[in-house]
Amino acid sequence: MKRTISVLVEKDAGGLVRIVSLLTRRRFQIESITMAACERKCYERITIIVINQSDGSDAASQLTKQIRKLVNVVNVKDITYLPLVQRELLLIKLQVDLMERTEILNLAQVFRFKIIDMTDSTLIIEITADPGKIVALHKVLEKYTILQLSRTGEIALTRESSVNTSSLREYPEFEVNTVIGKNYNKNIEDLFFTGL
Fold it and tell me: How many CB atoms lie within 10 A of CB 19?
């Protein structure tokens, strides 16, 4: 099961290494890990997306307890099921011909990405969005020749508004029957990517 863990640490050269060592010893697969300055001086926020390889249901709570014991860790929270704002940055360099360039320019209106570099035969696309939209764009662009691709990994903050859409994406078989006063029977991914 995929988990999102937020860790607040004091700035320390070995802090990230200790956390990564703990995750690998406990057999958690790291999907992404981001570390950057935060709202407090001399502290950094680490957002970790891990996949639990063990069958234990309380493995995530054990993990947060063990991270909390590490030197320089100020706060740890498993925010997987909390209302979140999640973002990720994706850069893709594509090899394109004239017709493909026109198709991609049309896609820019749908996915709201930026074209940040263009030559006769290449485009570089930048998009900052929630992880679901990043995956959807990547799947659409797979039919083109991808020369290079780089993803930053997810960052996340808990929402104060208590609106949560990310936890629904964890269940692709989940169906929604009522949306905006109309009856629909669609896969939840269709709702996220068609703009309903």
Answer: 24
Q: Give the predicted TM-score (pTM) of the model.
A: 0.73
Task: Please give the Cα distance from 164 to 79 (Å, whole number).
Answer: 12
**What are the tens digits of pLDDT across the range 69-118?**
998 999 999 998 899 999 999 999 999 999 999 999 999 999 999 999 99
Instruction: List, in order, residues 6 or more apart from 182 with CB less than 8 Å away.
Output: none
pLDDT tens for residues 167-187? Answer: 444 444 433 333 333 333 334
Taking the C-alpha atoms of residue 130 and residue 105, their distance in angstroms, rounded to an integer, is: 21
Can you read off the two tokens belonging to residue 4?
Answer: 């999102």
19 contact partners, CB below 8 Å, separation of at least 6: 7, 9, 46, 48, 67, 70, 73
**3-class DSSP state of 165:** coil
Phi, psi of 177 (to 5 degrees): -100, -25
CA distance 92 to 83: 29
Q: Is 116 helix (H, G, I), strand (E, B) or coil?
A: strand
Burial of 90: CB neighbours in 10 Å, binned 0-12, 13-18, 19+: buried
- Distance (Å, whole) CA 2 – CA 28: 10
Q: φ, ψ for residue 133 (rounded to 5)?
A: -70, -35
